[in-house]
Amino acid sequence: MSRAAITRYTVDTGKQLTEPIRIAHVSDLHERNSDDVLSMLKAEKPDLIMVTGDTFERYDNRPQYEFYRRPVKRLIINVIHYSNYILTKFEPKRLKADEENVLRFLSEAVKTAPVYMSLGNHEQKLLYRDYAFLKKQGITLLDNADTEVEIKGFRFILGGMSCWDFEEWFPTFLEKDGYKILLCHKPNQYMDFVKDKGVDLTLSGHTHGGQMLIGRKGMGFFVPGQGLFGKYAHGSFCDGRLIVSAGCANTVAFPRIFNPRELVMITLK
């Protein structure tokens, strides 16, 4: 298993805060063992924990043929998909998805700070027992939904954007007054629908850091939703309005290279 690291960002809200607010951003657990990330999370003692999707594995994991206009790109990406699908069948059990890993992670995380969670593309078919678990633990699920949050006297609107059918909910979120934070699993979804719409801060994942970081600027090799050498693999973009996590797990047969699993810590000031 690759090592885990903490990446820190500071965001100026432009608002009057009595003291800084510390947010832990967790993404892409994928039911893998992330006990080391959990230990770092507890040690950081954040004020809030925000989980941005692909926590559970609730989808058809067979690779889907994807259409790209360029035949060479289409060939490369599908070779990657199908090779990984076959190779992961031979991985040791300890590296495979097991819902006990995320149940343990979330039940411990909520003892540290309030947990707010959105869904990702791997959670198309969330089960009744998943909803029941989240409710029992006191974890707030925001799936095309928003809520007002107050921490240390600072009030803001927190929304969670689905990967599908968000068109009806999203305009109502935009109309609300106040500092807006959005949990949006896919960064390319942010670029297509959220950018320049007045959302103050968006937290995303999905990319896994591009699996391999290349060059001084840390360009991701293969970025889900963006293809080869996608721009929004990991980091802070759009003048700090978009923060993309490299994620907490490795879900493919190929190791993460120069790309540690990541806990993101954000300080609002």
Contiguous helical run count: 6
Gross CATH architecture: 4-Layer Sandwich
Number of domain modules? 1
Number of strand elements: 16
Q: CATH class, anyone?
A: Alpha Beta
Q: Give the spatial strand order of the biggest sheet.
A: 1-16-2-3-4-5
The CATH superfamily appears as Metallo-dependent phosphatases
Major beta-sheet overview: 6 strands, mixed
Shape: globular
- Beta percentage is 25-35%
Level of helix content? 10-25%
Distance between the ends = 35 Å
Characterise this structure.
By secondary structure, the protein is of the alpha/beta class. It has one domain (4-268): 4-Layer Sandwich (Purple Acid Phosphatase, chain A, domain 2), CATH 3.60.21. It has helices at 35-44, 71-87, 99-112, 128-137, 170-175, 187-194, and strands at residues 4-11, 21-26, 48-52, 115-118, 140-141, 145-151, 154-161, 179-184, 201-204, 213-214, 219-220, 222-223, 227-228, 235-237, 242-244, 261-268. The strands form four sheets. Strands 1-16-2-3-4-5 form a six-stranded mixed sheet, with helices on one face. Strands 6-7-8-9-15-14 form a six-stranded mixed sheet. β2, α1 (35-44) and β3 (48-52) form a beta-alpha-beta unit.
